[in-house]
Amino acid sequence: MLGLLFLLLPVAMGYGWFMGRNSVKQNDHSATQELSIKYSTGLNYLFSNQQDKAIDYLLEALKVEDDTVEAHFAMANLFRRRGELDRALKVHEHLVRQKHLPNSAKQQAVFELAKDFLSAGLYDRAEAMFHKLLKSKIYGLKSLSSLMKIYQSTKDWQQGIALKKAIAKTRDTKLLHTLANFYCELATLALEKDEFIEVIELLDNALSHDPNSSRANWLMAQIYENHQQYNEACQCYKAIYEQDKEFFPDVIDKMFICYQALDAEEEFFQFIRKVYEETGATSALIKYLSHIEQVKGVNQAKKFILTALNRRPTIRGFKYFVKMQMNDGESENTSENLEVIRELVSAYLNVKHRYSCRSCGFNSSTHYWSCPSCHDWEQLKPIRGLDGE
Ligand SMILES: [Zn+2]
After folding, report:
1. What digits encode the pLDDT tens for the residues 58-83?
2. Is there a single domain that holds both residue 346 and residue 357?
3. Residues with CB under 5 A from ligand 1 (ion)
4. How many CB atoms lie within 10 A of CB 38?
5. Ligand 1 mean position, distance from CA 149 (Å)
6. Is residue 103 part of a domain?
7. pLDDT of 81-129, one tens digit each?
8. Which of 88, 188, 224, 252 could form a disulfide with 233 if both were Cys (CB 3.0 to 4.6 A apart)?
């Protein structure tokens, strides 16, 4: 009750100002009297703990003028922050009904009402409100962004893609990135049905809106690989390296399969060596070590890994080092000890997350294209550092 009184303070202040101003105008005397009755009735309801009725009367008592509109918004926002959405809705609907408000306040009222509907999970009503604001200079971008969030929650990828012209006009990189991922979602469905042309077209669209979408190239590589077009698949994987070096360790094994199919392993290992030198990624190191072992022998591989671990120690690198020692024909006793160490290291790594979201820090052992916590796209990447890459 006291809390609500505090919340209604801006209304009461606005009312006081309004009544004071109007008291000097004799012609408005009867109107003022009527408002005064509504105000008293509102307060009576408030004190008898009938808060919703109190709000109805107080809203009517406080005529929305240019000078009091901010007090209304402040009150509604306080209601929303307290989780009292029905009350916030009531105030914002009241504001939307005011015909005489300046355009900016009208748009603000519609936008805030849309946010109330969104918070209440009434997506269709929020969607209708946000659509009304698409041409607004102040709320156009925010409304587009909210609409894309709605379509992401409801998986209405086509609806989001229908906004592509409006999104392209904004040149907003985050929105373009989201749009590209909507195309990728449709491409994933088409990929499951092996619709080659459809997948390529959708992914071309994704890349035209966001050339940095590594997911688009990742999917493109899958469809090419499924159709034995390994050269094209390799180009896509190389493009991913240019787009997103932090995500790249996850594609190394798939890339290797394509190079093997082309009988071009030498070229692959040259590329992987470059990746290792530029990024220090442990996945690249381990892949390259297998090549050194095969071509130059175990001793050269051991020298290489020792230098690498000195330069940049990681648990996965250490595990591989232990495995190399085990394969080296050590005495039975030493082999058993090494096996214990290897098992301990494996157990340690098994409880560590492989991915972290670069936007919000969410950790996961599974990869998601959209972060389950902050819902940003393509932000889950292999963890760097001692426990990761
Ligand atoms: Zn996140």
Report:
1. 666 666 666 678 888 888 888 888 88
2. no
3. 357, 359-360, 362, 371, 373-374
4. 18
5. 14
6. no
7. 888 889 899 999 999 998 888 999 999 999 999 999 999 999 999 999 9
8. 224
Ligand 1 centroid distance, CA of 177 (Å): 15
- No. of H helices and E strands in the chain? 21, 3
Q: Ligand 1 mean position to 237 CA, how many Å?
A: 24
Question: How many other CB atoms are there within 10 angstroms of residue 84's CB atom?
Answer: 19
Ligand 1: distance of its center to the CA of 178 in Å? Answer: 14
Q: Measured between alpha carbons, how far is 349 from 312 in angstroms, rounded to an integer?
A: 17
Domain range for 362 is 351-388
pLDDT on residue 324: 86
Find, among 290, 216, 224, the residue nearest to 253 by Cα: 290
378 Cα–ligand 1 center, Å: 9
Selection from 307, 345, 348, 354 nearest residue 323 by Cα:
345
Alpha helices in 280-387 (DSSP H): 282-296, 298-311, 315-326, 332-350
Distances (CA, A) of 143 to 38, 126, 130, 140, 148: 36, 10, 5, 5, 9
Quote the ligand 1 centre to 18 CA distance (angstroms). Answer: 47
The answer to whether position 319 is within a domain reads yes
Q: What is the identity of the amino acid at 241?
A: Y
Same domain, yes or no, for 328 and 282?
yes
